[in-house]
Amino acid sequence: HIYSDLDLRIQELAGVDVSGHKRQMAGTEQHVATTQTDIKGEPTGANAVTGYSVPTMDSPVASNNSSESLVSQKDAYQVAYEILRGGHNRRAIIAFNTLLVKYPAGEYADNAQYWLGEAYKVNQEIESAKVAFTKVVTHYSGSPKVPDALLKLGYIALDQRNIAKARDYLTQVTVNHPGTTAAHLAGKKLMAMELE
To answer: pLDDT tens digits for 66-114?
Structure first.
């Protein structure tokens, strides 16, 4: 599996015992390195910065088995989400970013992007949270997470005392996503703003 090193890194961040899996993967990584050497005529080795091997896109091991990929995506997403639920925001940020780099258009990318925003927000990295929530809206416009991301952008704008921007985000939620929990919360917040 091409990205086993990233999966292991996510598991290590989550505190999962991966020693048995590492032993199992050692033979596979050696095979991949040998195959890459045979194909390219030069060893690819480990990345000097990360210490992890980096497969090339033209390598035969870079072919994507969709069912294997989906399981890996789901596992990586669940690990990242559990890290966040455990209150380890910095580690969750790393795990969600890793998932998004690995599967930018994957089945869980919209959710990962949203929870990345939440992790940044809880970690008081507000500008990064805004970027993450905005990406949910712009990159995953059909996602069910869009109303929630707009709501969070509205709350952030309110916290930053940008009332006009907050009103715009909250109104987008109520107008474009009626019937959602986010629209209900946005409507309540808009009414409270009118009373102030």
So the answer is: 666 666 999 999 999 999 999 999 999 999 999 999 999 999 999 999 9
Q: And the tokens for 122?
A: 């809880």
Instruction: Show contacts of 12-18: CB within 8 Å, 24+ apart.
Output: 13/79, 13/83, 13/91, 13/94, 13/95, 14/79, 14/82, 14/83, 14/91, 14/95, 16/79
**Rounded average pLDDT over 131-149:** 98
Domain of 52, in residue numbers: 1-63
Residue 102 lies in a domain: no
Of 17, 5, 9, 15, nearest to 86 by C-alpha is: 15
Helices (H) and strands (E) in the chain, counts: 9, 0
pLDDT for 12 equals: 55
Report how far residue 93's alpha carbon sits from residue 84's, in angstroms, rounded to the nearest whole number.
8
Q: What is d(CA 183, CA 148) in angstroms, rounded to the nearest whole number?
A: 9
In DSSP terms, 46 is beta-bridged to: 53
Going by C-beta distance under 8 Å and a sequence separation of 6 or more, which residues neighbour residue 117? 129, 130, 132, 133, 136, 149, 152
Q: Estimate to the nearest angstrom the gap between the alpha carbon of 180 and the chain centroid.
A: 23
Q: Is residue 139 part of a domain?
A: no
